[in-house]
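note to self: dont lose this again. the chain is below, predicted strucutre after it. 477 aa total, dont forget to put it in the shared folder this time
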Amino acid sequence: FNNNTMGRRHKRKKVVEDVVMTGIADKGKAVGRAPSGEVLFVDGAVPGDVVDVLVLRKKKSFGQGIVKEFKSYSDDRVEPFCQHFDDCGGCKWQHLSYDAQTKHKHTMVVDAMRKIAKIPTENISPIKGCEETRYYRNKVEYSFSNKRWITEAEAASEEEIMQHPAFGFHRAGAWDKIIDIYTCHLQDTLSDKMRNAIREYTMENKITYYDPRSHKGMMRNMIVRNTTLGHWMVIVSFGEPEMEIAEGVMAFLKESFSQITSLHYVINQKLNDTILDQDIILYKGDPFIIEQLGDCKYKIGPKSFFQTNSKQAKVLYDVVKDYAQLESEMNVYDLYTGLGSIALYLAKECKQIVGIDEVEPAIVDARTNAALNEIENSIFYAGDVKDVLTEAFRDTHGSPDVVITDPPRAGMHGDVINTLLTLAAPRIVYVSCNPGTQARDIALLSEKYDMVKMQPVDMFPHTHHIENVALLELKKT
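---
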């Protein structure tokens, strides 16, 4: 069978009829409840649809499945605007109106706080949505593969299917195959032009594409980054050290796209695609690009982490600033600071801000950006937050008046929670990309803290992802 076939026959699988889809869930699934009360997570539906569900997997408290038949369609359905929507899977909710997306994301936050944190939810503000729901990303990574994903339309047709190399995105669940992408609505259209030009150049010159099974092939990945200031960075990852071929590719990019202000390449012969542990070579231009949020500028290098939606990052940081209520004599801790983006955005509002992050190159970036902005009241430490944030750390840097924390999706380590309870800062501003783990941590902090208010912020339209900012204040004794 072709690569789109699921490889399993659905004999004896349970079909649940007339399931009303009510919300969105992880990985682009819709969630609904059967007439019997059974909770089902379903691929291919949107909230408001009524469907018959073919259950593929059953757990104790819920089931997972796919749409077997639509009984009625949601009023919130819209026509997807991307030609690759049916196959790509990157923008899972393009077929759901943006108003409905934000409504359901808000519900995700409310449900997490009510069910996990078990706190009142009337102080959760309406979500701040994006003004621009297309071309909002400032970083996109494309991959090359000698194996192209066969689209659903091709598989259903009676025409002979031509297999050829592809340059675009990984298909979810198909690590060794790439969907050939010609038009993408995530990043400025210059990104499309560069990607399509490189495809044409490499195909004309018969340059090999990477085979992820044999780990052979020249063209492996391409990362494109841009900023609101009009700076562009391109990083080409080659799978083999064929320098004459690499030179040709890089020269082509340099000559074809004068907009590129920072052009790099890397020879990556490892078994995985990450280049954070590789030597990245500057081919042309500056070693970094510059982004600006408000009055704060940031140098972004090839290995730097930065919020991938610059305009909405400013919205997020303004919420943090509002919640922090900083004064000139305040001492601030910024946990999981990254390259210090939030810390530097707020530094001029307080006496001192101290940032901690376990990624040492990010801390180097933070110090560089502090110098760039002539900020002298920031201090940055590299190390695991649970190890660095101690009572001894407090004795050295003073007790915090405000703690800002922006942990990864897994939330904060239990040791960090305990230290925060010991430090007892008057105010904690908790930024999270995962309302579930944020709610868990808020429940643990409720021993000493009240949740005062929350502000969800949508950073990634057409996906299930949501950022949420919570203000916690020390309980009055």
